[in-house]
Amino acid sequence: MIVSRGLYLRRRLTNGAFITLSIGAALFGLIWLAFILSALLSEGIAALSPILFTHSTPPPGQPGGLLNAIIGSVLMSMLAVGLGTPIGLFAGTYLAEYGKHTSFAFIVRFVNDILLSAPSIVTGLFIYEIVVLPMGHFSAWAGTLSLMVIVIPVVVRTTENMLILVPNGLREAASALGAPMSFVIRSVTWKAAQAGIVTGVLLAIARISGETAPLLFTALNNQFLTTDLNAPMASLPAVIFQYALSPYADWHRLAWAGALLVTAAVLLLSIIARVLETKRN
Amino acid sequence: MADIALNEDATANRDTRAETTRRAGRGDARFHLLTWMAAAAVLLIFVGVIISLVIGSIPAFKAFGFAFLKSSAWDPTSNLFGGLPSIFGTLVTSTLAMLLAVPVGIGVAIFLTELCPRPLRRPIGIAIELLAGIPSIIYGIWGLFVFAPWFQAHVQQPVIDGTSGIPLIGTLFGGAPYGIGIFSAGLILSIMILPFISAVTRDVFETVPAMLKEATYGLGCTTWEVMWSVVLPYARSGVIGGAMLALGRALGETMAVTFVIGNAHTIAPSLFAPGTTISATIANEFTEATGALYTSSLIFLGLILFFITFIVLACAQWMLLTLERQAGAK
Description:
- By secondary structure, chain A is mainly α.
- Chain A contains ten helices and no strands.
- Chain B is an all-alpha fold.
- A two-stranded antiparallel ribbon of chain B has the order 1-2.
- The radius of gyration of chain B is 28 Å and the shape is flat.
């Protein structure tokens, strides 16, 4: 038997180069993650102080915090999730339980997946056109609605995915006992898919917590603390955007503190969602 | 007497039972309608987005027509607007991001499915996915304050010095080292979309039957040969679908780009020069836009962006759907 040494060597070398490149690719990703998180931690922790949570955003040169932005973000996110979750839950239920393979369900599924990845700035323009222009001014309601438009597709997608995983035997057993379909869905299928649906909602909250683009020309920003939903309202991402691009060093510090808070919140939500998911499996 | 009473009882029973069934039926129909309305609402949002953008961009379209797509003018004081620099910037930054992220993303997926020691798989996979969890504004502030100065001093300066004088490449990397610019935006975008590509690719790789891989290994093939000749061809449409999905993200990404692109309505031959993208233009100028034509031009840009991403995302879905059908057929 003739073994070509050259060929053998070449194959081994190609393989070696390929393995090195793959490991390099993974390192490439991890290095950027470390780079970003370390900068965020060192700059953010240096800027953390109790005043962040007790005072509103200051004019340049004066001490201040992020209270109005934190409250604005929490308020608008909660409202958006509160309004968007039922719509997403019902629509996802329709796709998984009623629509299934009908062409209407197919179109809704397709459109939903487009909305899921569509540029969020376009969402902002949409809400500007249908809410801000008719109202004549920027408002927290407009911000809430544009976040809601982002929440709905996320909840629809996870709800449908989770409901499909529920074994048909469960539905059949409940129906055989004489339960009407809506009762089966509410008391059996939803229950079985509960953890997955909650995961989807958490992911939706994580997603909108850092959203900036749709808020810029809907909720705008506000120097002062307000809970009036008809007035412009501050949010953490919008404040980070404004302050980071300003020329003042103390505003930069506040932007970093805000960035740390947003990232911590988002990562915490993702971790909780992941733990729930693992539990389900 | 007793007989009659019994009969009456049975009738009453039958009535309530029928009533209950009817009530349940009505509740059922109501619930069905409710879920249908929610599904229709999703459709309505989508149609609403298109209609509102079209209506909003009518004044700009009347003023400039399709020449808007070819014009580089951006002069708010004399009400002249053209979308070319923004469209150019969007396409170039996304292309750069894809050129970097697709090979690296596939590399990460290969590492995680084939090479990584089992106990490290989960932590490294989660770490890469964290990159997708970080909000885009964080990439923006990091890009502006940390990445751009570092990039300017340690990468741009040496590259500009090293390539000056070489035709073509010298122009591509010419100019002053600003730190911010088209290239920085593309690089940061590539980091942001990397996890999308690697996650989808990894999922698709896991659908490749182990038997196929084992057979190829059994023939004496190296890991590279197995991946290149068996796994990648098998997973092709899924990988392309995942990449298109990531491209859709890159095209519409706003905050990270707005911070580091430099916001210049110019088309420069150098990748290190500042530029702008559709989303960055809208984010920067929308609230300050005075005059109906200015606002309408920005909405027109938004419509163009939505159109481009729609095409890309629709292709991605079609690819992934084909894959699902394939998997379902087996």
